Amino acid sequence: MTRHRRKGLPEPRVDEPTEMEELVLASEEPPVTIDPLTDAPIPEPAFDIVPGIPVFDHAAVIRQIELMIGRRWYGDREEYLGSPLPTFSESDQLRFDRLVALSHDPQEGRRPVLFGTDGMVSALMQARRLCPGFEAVVDLIIRAAILSLRTGTPIAVPPLMLLGPPGAGKTRASRQIASALGTEIHAINCAVNSDAQALVVGHPTSWKAARMGQLTEAMAMGETAQPIVLLDETDKLVTHSSEKPYNTLLTILEAENSRAVVDEFVRVSFDLSAAIIICTANSIEALPDFILDRLVTFFIAPQQGDALLAVARLIAEGIVGELQGGVAVPSDEVLTRAARHNPRRLGKVLRLSFGYAAAGGRAALTIADIVAAEKLVTASPQVRPIGFLTAHRVCGDQPL
Description:
Layout: H1 19-27, E1 33-34, E2 41-42, E3 52-54, H2 58-69, H3 78-81, H4 90-103, E4 110-112, H5 118-130, H6 135-151, E5 160-163, H7 170-181, E6 185-189, H8 196-200, H9 214-221, E7 228-232, H10 245-253, H11 255-258, E8 261-263, E9 268-270, E10 276-281, H12 289-292, E11 296-299, H13 305-322, H14 332-338, H15 343-359, H16 367-378, E12 394-395, E13 398-399
Helix pairs in contact: 2-4, 5-6, 5-7, 13-14, 13-15, 15-16
């Protein structure tokens, strides 16, 4: 629509830049971001970035509260404007309290998403060095960060599967990636989960001990729309006989489904589509094809040679840091001897070894310390009698 200027008013003056100002403006070029893999400049996005997305439907939370109380919900003014609340059963009271907590969310359900930055790419490159054997996995995340940096869109990572033997460092690598991305990690051990529905969407209040789903609750209480959701030991997800647990995982592995996951407890829709899903497993045999088809699978081979020595050094340096520098980083000779063990066992061996060294008044480890610690870690468990009575009670050398 054209605006008409009143008669008699002068035209607004537009100051033309002077020659000096033109030179200054020309010299103030935006900084150029360099792609660390190709050394080519990355163009800046020419559009606005949305700061966050709704992780849960805040308006639906209010509707559910009002359905429970049968009137309008006044929120912070409820104490002054609201009439007395109805009496709820124990399970409904828990649901009501959870809904009220969600209604008070200061961001009304919105959470920020991740965008690639130079600092993030540098941190991921460092994580790549700290996770020998996981280079291909971290490279995928690096490419996603660079694509985000080029396009100004949020980081997008497909659901991943890290398949490898126990103690290969799969969980540790996932945590390193989360740290490099500057995001949260919600780790769930599927091996100790007895209810797959409770894992994702919770149960309605008609169930005994009903509660929100672990994932929906973690997303609601978290600080980001893009945490890493670590489903550890996915191949050991075994629940009660009437449930098909892997069918439940389709809710978060299918992009269309994950955008509108209804939590059965609070009856509110959640958006889990931005979460970065990382599954780990020791064996592929227990995993159904319809799950594997939705995952990008990486086979993590046990480290050997220089890679194994590098892992041993990283673990040793981490323990030295935990001990506040009161012990010395082991020599290559000692680390080579210790590196016979997988990363999980290696940490135990090194910690026990430092104890032997400290008892001997030394800051540096010796191979003898490693050997002594190995005997504790690798010893076969002995069958011991339970209680005070055995087949023969001995007094001195004579059986009674």
